[in-house]
Amino acid sequence: MTLCPRSTGWFIGPLLVMSLTVPGCIGVVGIGDKESKPAFLMSTEVDATKYERTAGKPTRIEVESAGSGREVWIYQQEGLRWRGIVLFAIVPIPLIVPVGHNEMILVVEQGRILSSANRESNATWGAFCGFIWHPHSRDDTGFHCASY
Questions:
Q1: How far apart are CA 132 and CA 84, in angstroms?
Q2: How far apart are CA 122 and CA 101, in angstroms?
């Protein structure tokens, strides 16, 4: 008994099934920074010293501008931030590099937190084209392109 049949047609069936279930998508996505507001600081002013007692000392403090009295407190968080692009030619090909850690940024003036933001990596733009097979709708099956 041989493991490989003499006829090469034996793999056509599985290949056809795979071609219908794996989209032949091509595209590109840009990866960059995304800022979002932390829920606990969205609506109320928070005392900076109370926050510091709870969260600990910031990773670094930057002065916004000389004489303004504003400081930017930066807390390093879990996870890396990435920049670059991801190409898609059936499989994703990441061309990205780490540029730092995720951060929470607080703008502090006279002991009050004026604003805050979380800085993390996210897909910032992209475009795709490919065949999409939808088993329940003929209208959704076909070649589609999308961008954001």
A1: 26
A2: 13
> Domain for residue 108, yes or no?
yes
Place of tokens 């403090």: 61
Per-residue confidence (pLDDT) for residue 3, from 0 to 100: 46
How far, in Å, CA of 92 to CA of 25, rounded? 10
pTM: 0.62
Give yes or no for a contact between 54 and 41, defined as CB atoms under 8 angstroms apart. Answer: no
Could you tell me the residue range of the domain that residue 114 belongs to?
Answer: 15-147
Sole residue written with tokens 């475009």:
127
Tell me if 110 is assigned to some domain.
yes
How many domains does the chain fold into? 1
Average pLDDT over residues 53-61: 92
Closest C-alpha to 75, from 20, 23, 38: 38
